[in-house]
């Protein structure tokens, strides 16, 4: 899967930036894959199997809750999931992965591959239940990724990068659900997200093609009349992303928030973080929507290659609307969260805050009021968020710069210098002994006499002792 991702991100290899993005994704995900492989080795050593149903049965029997073995194994599995699903701190590869073709972004980098980590934790939940500290870490990682990605998306100007950070944010919701024990709800959101995020990416690709491969949303505007089908598909996808009722995103996201409220210790705090994430999602989603489809026309689009682009969008839009009504039964594979309902006011707040976010985006980006809320006026904060909270710069200083400096010092390769040293020593000895074998009789006699004197001296000294 990593090789497929590498090849597809660097599909347009003529641009060096695409090759860099492909290498970045491959290397960062290999960090998680290495930890995941070690975790599998330890799991096999402790339980003697890698069969998932058997692991679910043996984990509670063989492991002591909170002991070192399940904690270490769960941590390594979590590292693998974090790398593949682009969660903190191994999330930096996904925004650059948008260098690949848009269908690749829709399928692999939004709907399937990046959600593999969520599926991994859900299917190995028996191990994570024996490591409660790691399970709590899963919730915090998901919540922090959700919020950090949301704030970063508020500043992006590339339409695909906005959706990339949105993907990281929504997978953060899934991790958040896993951490609070809402296993089925997390997989439910995985399914609904796959539909509406693929819809948004494919619609974005249609818009990019219509605008002659333009991806900067600052150069778009007023496209709702020229591109009616992408317009309505984007309306549906954005409504699902914001979790407006009765879209599919509403059912899955509300299920996660309800489950988080019931967590005994941190429940209300986790719920508040999830609702804040939904509020930020509403602002950046409809910021994107209003900048692209409303306002003054800044480019004259052409309809991309006729009607054949529309059926996939319409199918995805239909599924995104109705998928929430079909909750997949988890059966015995994944347990459901504890039964119960939070207070009614929590549901009102969870629906009302995203609506408020949409209203703020409308006032700022359509009616051009409340301009003090534009992040363009807060240069330092905007730059900080635009750069993804400085994670790329931090990793460059911690890992890339020391490595390149060491490579510069070792430019001539010290290891390769050792065989060269042996060769030079052999040549020196060759020249030295060649001078002794010069064919002159007096040199040979002097050599024999010197050797005889040395041997005689050693023998006398030995006898004296």
Structural summary, described in words:
By secondary structure, this protein is mainly α. It is built from 20 helices and no strands. The chain has helices at 2-9, 16-47, 52-62, 68-84, 93-96, 102-107, 116-123, 125-129, 132-153, 159-179, 183-210, 228-242, 248-261, 267-293, 310-322, 344-365, 379-386, 391-409, 414-436, 441-464. Helix 10 (159-179) runs antiparallel to helix 11, helix 12 (228-242) runs parallel beside helix 15 and helix 13 (248-261) runs antiparallel to helix 14. The chain is elongated. 44% of the residues are buried.
Task: Provide a quick synopsis of the model.
The chain is mostly helical. It is built from 20 helices and no strands.
What's the helix and strand layout?
Blueprint: H1 2-9, H2 16-47, H3 52-62, H4 68-84, H5 93-96, H6 102-107, H7 116-123, H8 125-129, H9 132-153, H10 159-179, H11 183-210, H12 228-242, H13 248-261, H14 267-293, H15 310-322, H16 344-365, H17 379-386, H18 391-409, H19 414-436, H20 441-464
Helix pairs in contact: 1-2, 2-4, 4-7, 4-9, 9-10, 9-14, 10-11, 10-13, 10-14, 11-12, 11-13, 11-15, 12-14, 12-15, 13-14, 14-16
